[in-house]
Amino acid sequence: MYMDINFLTAFNLVAVKEFWLGVEETSVTGNFMRIHDEADVSYFEWASGQPDNRGGDQKCVVSNGDQQWAWSDWFCSIEQLVVCELPN
C-alpha cells in the first residue's frame, strides 16, 4: 500500500519535501488508520524521533523528503501534495 522510495527518487522530486500518506492518528493516541477505509495501519516507517505530536495536534502522516522519505506526524491543516495508489 505505501509508496516505494525508488518511485519518488526516480522522479527527482527535489522541490517536493513532503507528501500526505492518507494516514491519520485515531482517537487512541499512538494508533493510526488509513483515511480512505479506516483500516488500522500496522506498518510504519517513522523518521527518527517520530511521531512526536509536537504541539499536541499532529494527527496526520507525511513522507518527509528531508528524512529520506521516512514518515513524520504533521498538522492536518497544512496543505501538502498526496501520493495516490492506482488499481492494477
UniProtKB/TrEMBL annotation:
Organism: Dreissena polymorpha (Zebra mussel)
Keyword Disulfide bond found: yes
Pfam (any one): Lectin_C
Keywords tagged on the record: Disulfide bond
Protein name: C-type lectin domain-containing protein
InterPro entries tied to this protein: C-type_lectin-like (IPR001304), C-type_lectin-like/link_sf (IPR016186), C-type_lectin_CS (IPR018378), CTDL_fold (IPR016187)
Keyword Calcium tagged: no
Taxonomy, superkingdom: Eukaryota
Domain annotation C-type lectin: ranges: 1-85
